[in-house]
Amino acid sequence: MPEGSRQLAMVFDLNKCIGCQTCAVACKMLWTRDEGSDYQWWCTVNTVPGKGSPKDWESMGGGYENGELILGKAPDREDFGGGWDFNYNEVFYGEGPPGKKIPLRVVGEQPTWGPNWDEDQGGGQYPNNYYYYLPRTCNHCSKPACVDACPSGALKKRQEDGIVVRDESVCTGSRQCAAACPYKKIYFNEQRGVSQQCMFCLPRLEDGVAPACARQCPGRAVFVGFLDDKDGPVHKLVNEWKVAVAQHPEYGTEPNIFYVPPIGPHPIAEDGSVDENRHRIPDELLEEQFGPDVHEALATLQTEMSKTREGGKSELMDMLIAYKWTSLLGEFTVDPVTLEKDVS
User: Fold this and answer.
1) Rounded to 5 degrees, what angle do the CA atoms 33, 38, 42 make?
2) pLDDT for 249-269, tens place per residue?
């Protein structure tokens, strides 16, 4: 990074994510309720293995190869799904046949995909089926392909916190950014003719409030902080303990959203016994998602878990358990309810 710059990052502990979608809904209620953004979910929680959102995004290309920018596919509205109209008036306001219960259904063109279309399906066979939840948002990459690809200069990476921001008054809607982003977390607002994506809840950060996805997480699974804050959990999890890894590091964009990989349950043998030497989630799946460093991360987690089971102490386990919610959010612990409201 350039001298004097800082990078804000988040760590999602996938061993604590229960797939409740609270982070996704919190983000949705704040940022994507305007015209043209009805189908947008800047934060999604996908089930892995699965096709994700947008559908088959991992095969759409983008990022860097040998240092060269690659333009892949810019996902379209159908790839994302969502934003449908429902028969609310019939269900909630009595416009249907009297005395008849009307189920909620999509009105008009029927959907073929959506943000959580293959939720909880996973892989494997009973009783050793497996899956895990994966929250995804803009990675605010250290080497953002979207910024390099933008022809109008609408996108920039802030030096003071590393957040990728967009000036919508400059954006021409070319969608080059979406084609270049290998994670496909950039949406297009057809009504306004501009692309849009997560901006790390920047207005909240300026008031000392953590991003909505992190603060609203009921499982205390999301850590927020600067990577150079050596006393903060994000720095320790990523740089010291090295148990937080980025998704698809091979894309070359150096993401700043990190994940503590899922351990998963042990497999069950034919005689009903539990094989404590293995885990159901295949090592090759985790390496495909998080790169080879995932194996060292899992080994460290297992070592520290064993230490606590034997009665010992572990700084890492205490950090991940997060006995105090404020320990998750770094310097962004202000309660938004306490902020003075502008009533002008």
Assistant:
1) 80
2) 999 999 999 999 999 999 999
> What is the greatest pairwise CA distance in the chain?
70
Distance CA 151, CA 174 (A): 8
Q: How far is CA 285 from the centre of its chain?
A: 18
Task: Assess contact for 162 and 141: CB atoms under 8 A.
Answer: no
Measured distance CA(95)–CA(90) in Å, rounded: 5
Whole-model pTM: value is 0.94
User: According to DSSP H, which parts of the chain are helical?
Assistant: 22-31, 77-80, 88-92, 145-149, 176-180, 202-206, 212-215, 233-235, 283-290, 293-309, 315-321
The count of other CB atoms within 10 Å of the CB of residue 87 is 15
H or E element in which residue 194 lies: strand 194-196
pLDDT at 341 over 80: no
d(CA 276, CA 313): 22
Q: In angstroms, rounded to a whole number, what is the distance separating the alpha carbons of residues 105 and 235?
A: 46
Task: Report the distance separating Cα 153 and Cα 151, nearest Å.
Answer: 6
> Model confidence at 277, in pLDDT bands (50, 70, 90)?
confident
Question: In this predicted model, what pLDDT tens digit does every residue of 197-238 receive, in sequence order?
Answer: 999 999 999 999 999 999 999 999 999 999 999 999 999 999
Per-residue pLDDT of 242-251, as tens digits, reads 999 999 999 9
Cα 138 to the chain's mean position, in Å? 7
| Contact in structure between 298 and 306 (CB atoms under 8 Å) | no
pLDDT band per the 50, 70, 90 thresholds, residue 343: very low
Residue 166, CA distances (Å) to 30, 143, 150, 257, 287 in order: 17, 16, 10, 19, 32
Tokens 């409030």 correspond to what residue? Answer: 209
Q: What fold does the segment set 8-82+115-337 form as a domain?
A: Alpha-Beta Plaits (3.30.70)
The domain ranges of the chain are: 8-82+115-337, 85-114
Per-residue pLDDT at 344: 42
Strand pairing category for 257-260 and 8-13: parallel
Q: Which two tokens stand for residue 272?
A: 């009903």
8 A C-beta contact, residue 84 and residue 106: yes
